[in-house]
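Note to self: keep these together.
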Amino acid sequence: MQSFKNLQKTSEEDLEEFVSTDHAMMDYQPVVKLDKFGKKKIDRICVLTTHQIMIVYEGGLKLEMKSNIDIKYLDYVIISLHKESKEVMLCFNTKKKSCMHMIFLNDW
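Structure:
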């Protein structure tokens, strides 16, 4: 399996433009998105800051913000118990977005 670093085009410096100056970036990882045929696509990056969880889309010519949710709305996290699966379900208490299902290569 290829490493995500080879597939990811975006650097930490590129992502910092989406992070507010009064927040600190804690972690970022490419997200595996499954299309309707089950094929894996890696065109999104999950960015965790001290105050927000952001999904940045890197498929086009420039980066685009896909989702931006305050951590205060995070109700709970469901983590897959399967050792090889890095699946995570983030469940929110907001009318905008209820869940985010993501697959990572590394532990978060």
